[in-house]
């Protein structure tokens, strides 16, 4: 599926590192949504059948002579299930539902930070409007013509859906690989337990990977200046266990951190 490659979003972090990533177009988002809806449909049908049997003893009786209160409760429960799935998955799973993870997509805030609960709740409640008049027609049209592929829910919530790939956040060219090898000669050991890894959010990952990918393009002074700022930021956040190493061997420190967290973030 071809996506437009010219739609990019840029964010300048407080550490003065510019993050740039490709936004997710209508095609990839539609496939991700189809995966999620297929899974939800299976769950919905199963729960509806179980509820029908419990209330009326059979599915036919529940549909032909529905109990008003019971029917309303079931519909409300299904609405909460479907809305809750997207909201809770995107909040607790780093901006990804199962469908988004399969397609290498992630929801983030406009400033590059991880989504908040309020943001994902708003964007998913607005699915009802994006879905008008049917089959996400309104949301798809808005997303298609918006310069950052945003649907109405994203516009209101201040979120954006970005594409991630294994090649985006890796040393994908000889210059970067050569530069990394140069710094790896300085032996640095960084111990990160799972608790420390969990402290890294999506903004931290983008900042780390963007800086390391751009090492060959930076002057020596800029490399050391930015490397020091980012390494100290990580240490103060609890990502790393040796401040002296973070301050004096910033780039090897960051490369060591990258090697330990890349499998958790690269899709």
What composes the largest sheet?
2 strands, antiparallel
* Assembly state: single chain
Rg estimate, integer Å: 23 Å
* Strand count: 4
Low-confidence stretches: 166-172
Per DSSP, the total helix count is 14
* Strand order in space, largest sheet: 1-2
Shape annotation = elongated
Mean pLDDT: 81
Fraction in helix: 55-70%
Distance between the termini: 17 Å
Number of domains: 2
Structural class: mainly alpha
**What is the H/E string?**
EEHHHHEHHHHEHHHHHH
Approximately how much beta-strand content do the residues carry?
5-15%
Provide an overview of this structure.
Helices cover 61% and strands 7% of the residues. The strands form 2 sheets. The chain has a two-stranded antiparallel ribbon. The protein has helices at 26-56, 59-64, 68-92, 98-103, 117-125, 127-130, 137-145, 152-157, 174-184, 194-198, 202-213, 220-236, 243-248, 250-265, and strands at residues 8-12, 18-22, 105-109, 159-163. The chain has 267 residues and is mostly helical. A hairpin with a 5-residue loop joins β1 and β2 (18-22). α1 (26-56) runs antiparallel to α3. It folds into 2 domains: 8-163, no CATH class; 174-265, no CATH class. The chain is built from 14 helices and 4 strands.
């Amino acid at each position: 599926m071809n996506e437009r490659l010219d739609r990019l979003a840029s964010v300048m972090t407080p550490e003065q590192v510019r993050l740039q990533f490709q936004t997710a177009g209508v095609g990839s988002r539609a496939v991700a949504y189809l995966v999620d809806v297929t899974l939800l449909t299976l769950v919905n049908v199963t729960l509806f059948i179980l509820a029908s049997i419990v209330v009326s003893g059979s599915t036919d009786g529940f549909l032909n002579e529905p109990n008003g209160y019971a029917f309303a409760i079931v519909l409300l429960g299904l609405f909460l299930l479907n809305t809750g799935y997207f909201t809770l998955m995107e909040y607790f799973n780093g901006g990804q539902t199962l469908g988004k993870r399969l397609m290498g997509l992630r929801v983030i805030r406009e400033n590059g930070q991880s989504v908040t609960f309020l943001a994902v709740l708003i964007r998913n409640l607005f699915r009802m409007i994006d879905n008008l008049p049917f089959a996400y027609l309104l949301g798809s049209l808005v997303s298609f013509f918006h310069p950052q592929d945003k649907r109405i829910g994203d516009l209101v919530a201040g979120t954006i859906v970005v594409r991630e790939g294994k090649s985006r956040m890796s040393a994908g060219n000889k210059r970067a690989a050569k530069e990394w090898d140069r710094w790896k000669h300085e032996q640095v050991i960084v111990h990160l337990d799972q608790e420390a890894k969990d402290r890294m959010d999506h903004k931290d990952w983008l900042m780390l990977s963007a800086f390391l990918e751009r090492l060959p393009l930076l002057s020596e002074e800029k490399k050391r200046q930015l490397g020091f700022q980012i390494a100290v930021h990580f240490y103060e956040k609890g990502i790393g266990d040796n401040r002296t190493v973070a301050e004096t061997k910033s780039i090897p420190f960051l490369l060591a951190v990258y090697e330990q967290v890349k499998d958790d973030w690269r899709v």
